[in-house]
Amino acid sequence: MDQLRITGGRRLDGAVPISGAKNAGLPQIAASLLSPYPLELTNLPKVSDVDNMLRIIGQYQAQVTREGQAVRIDPSAVEPGDVDYETVRKMRASILVLAPLLGRFGHAKVSLPGGCAIGARPVDMHLRVLTALGANVMIEGGYIVATAKGGLSGARIVLPGPSVGATETALMAACCASGETEILNAAREPEVCDLAACLIAMGASIEGAGTHRLLVDGQRTWRPASHHGIPDRVEAGTYAAAAVITGGRIELVNARMEHLASVFQALEAMGATIWPGDRGVVVSGPATHPGGLRPTDITTEPYPGFPTDLQAQFMAMAALADGASLFRETIFENRFMHVPELTRLGADIALNGSVAMVRGRSRLKGAPVMATDLRASVCLVLAALAAEGETIINRVYHLDRGYEQLDRKLAQCGADIERISQ
Ligand code: EPZ
User: Fold this and answer.
1) How far is 414 from 284, CA to CA, in rounded Å?
2) Under 8 Å CB-to-CB from 122, ≥6 apart: which residues?
């Protein structure tokens, strides 16, 4: 397993090209199965989660060819098959193929995901959506077996909570349902909007993307399509945090200011300066740093609130702030896996259920640490960039799931970082 060796203390200064959003690309790859016509996705990041999802649809005989950042999917010869436990266990997002296969072929069999590092993450809302659209959903031997003999029928779906994945399942299934479907309490994340835009390019009829109420007309005519996905707001927020925690300055090339309003508000509260650049957004940390980082309280919420996927990264900054910051994680029940590792670097953090009290210290000291999940791993990278001395981060395969060439992008901004292949 590869490691990252980082020696902290350097102010980062440079420009980082923000890749396509992983969490937009994954549902769009699944959505390609809905139609018999080719779908070209022209902004997919080169990360292992995307490679895994492409491999999954390849198992269904979808023909996948990648030319640079563009991927061309030909789903004409797709045959539904089972998605096994090992595949889904490694990547929960595999559940997103359930709706397209059911909608197109009338049956689908996907393993239940099991838990993951950040919580139980059940799929009950996904199954409730399919049942509401007339599917028969059974659990057999750890598998979800969904059938819709006479096809899916449009319905009024009220999601119990704004779930990103369940909203995406509802959108894809509703595109195949006869008649109109209304989805209430829909998630408003940019990745959901981007999926709607991709589906519309493919021939779907969807209104209300970005609001809590979506309307889908199932009478659609699929067609060949090409879609350029949105940039990754979580990656952009991560590199913004790298600029702030090192007291440096990074231009986030292609980042979309409007996707990061709550994140930039929190960064400015901590002492960052942010302005539109020639090619994206420029983020600068406090010139006085080390020192000069202000504490701020963070509560994670559904979009447009503060994103849970940036909670760990902000905790790394809070660990060096001049004061105490209170973190409330409201989306997942176990998303503080980074805390014990941050503590090894000298952070002073007290946990109480879904609340973490972070008392800022004047410095962190490098040490060997262990990555546990995608966003916890990058939190440790950020802390290491500001810590005194050397940090070795183990199990960096977690990072490869969602960050394209992270070590290279940081090194190009002046970081002392090296990937050590074991
Ligand atoms: C998506 O996960 C993202 N993943 C996550 O990013 C992100 O953290 C999350 O949305 C919240 O924004 C992808 O898009 C591939 P949810 P998802 O359904 O869809 C509960 C990353 O690091 N829930 O909005 O799984 C669930 O347990 C990843 O890139 C149910 O109870 O998130 C969670 O507590 C991590 N039943 C809450 O809802 C369900 O059927 C929000 O989950 C579905 C979800």
Assistant:
1) 15
2) none
Atom of ligand 1 nearest to the CA of 374: 22
Least confident of 30-34, 68-72, 293-297, 360-364: 68-72
pLDDT in the model for residue 84: 79
Average pLDDT over residues 371-386: 95
Q: What is the pLDDT of residue 86?
A: 82
Residue of 121, 338, 406 to mutate, ligand 1, most atoms within 8 A of C-beta: 121
CA of 120 to the centre of ligand 1 (A): 10
Q: What local confidence, expressed as pLDDT, does residue 287 receive?
A: 77
pLDDT > 70? residue 310: yes
Compute the distance from residue 237 Cα to the ligand 1 centre, in Å: 18
Query: What structural domains does the chain harbor?
Result: 3-15+231-420 (3.65.10.10), 25-228 (3.65.10.10)
**What's residue 289's pLDDT?**
67
- Which atom, in ligand 1's list, is nearest to the CA of 165? 19
Question: From the CA of 123, how far away is ligand 1's center (Å)?
Answer: 9
- Report the nearest-CA residue for atom 42 of ligand 1: 163
Query: Per-residue pLDDT tens for 319-346?
Result: 999 999 999 999 998 899 999 999 999 9
Record the tokens describing residue 161, joined without a space. Answer: 């909570």
pLDDT value for 127? 95
Is 379 catalytic? The answer is: no
Pocket of ligand 1 (CB under 6 A): 23, 26, 92-93, 119, 121-126, 161, 163-166, 191, 308-309, 331-332, 374-375, 402
